[in-house]
Inverse folding.
């Protein structure tokens, strides 16, 4: 029986009441309390982990008999620099600003003014790639990276 069928079955034939049903609010409150305690404990553990990791990195103790800490680089989405694009490719940039305005017009007519006011806002990569060429947008872009420290067993 899948969950939908079970729900329908319970609507048609509810379970009989039990004496424990009268204590359901108390049981729910106890579970809520345990959830809060667990979240607090998790925050404490995460804080302790961050402090230990920071200390391990600063003191260069990245390996012991059982574990080692490795650095993994996580890359985010590229972020194009509108100022660089406007400086390097002024003609294409004016096309880009018009394309933004047209997109905004299609999406929401009131956003046209905003698009005209914010040509140096976040670059819409799909439109920019078509106008400037992906290589040119890439040359004016950065790809943010985040270091993630992973503790692995040996």
């Amino acid at each position: 029986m899948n969950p939908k069928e079970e729900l329908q079955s319970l609507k048609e034939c509810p379970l009989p009441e039990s004496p424990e049903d009268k204590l359901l609010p108390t049981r729910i409150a106890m579970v809520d309390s345990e959830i809060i305690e667990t979240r607090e404990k998790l925050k404490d553990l995460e804080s302790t982990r961050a402090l230990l990791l920071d200390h391990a990195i600063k003191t260069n103790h990245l390996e012991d008999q059982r574990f080692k800490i490795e650095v993994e680089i996580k890359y985010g989405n590229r972020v194009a620099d509108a100022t660089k694009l406007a400086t390097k490719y002024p003609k294409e940039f004016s096309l880009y600003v018009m394309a933004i305005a047209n997109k905004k017009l299609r999406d929401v007519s009131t956003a046209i003014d905003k698009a005209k006011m914010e040509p140096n806002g976040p670059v819409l990569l799909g439109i920019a790639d078509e106008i400037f060429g992906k290589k040119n947008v890439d040359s004016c872009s950065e790809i943010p990276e985040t270091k993630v420290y992973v503790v692995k067993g040996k």
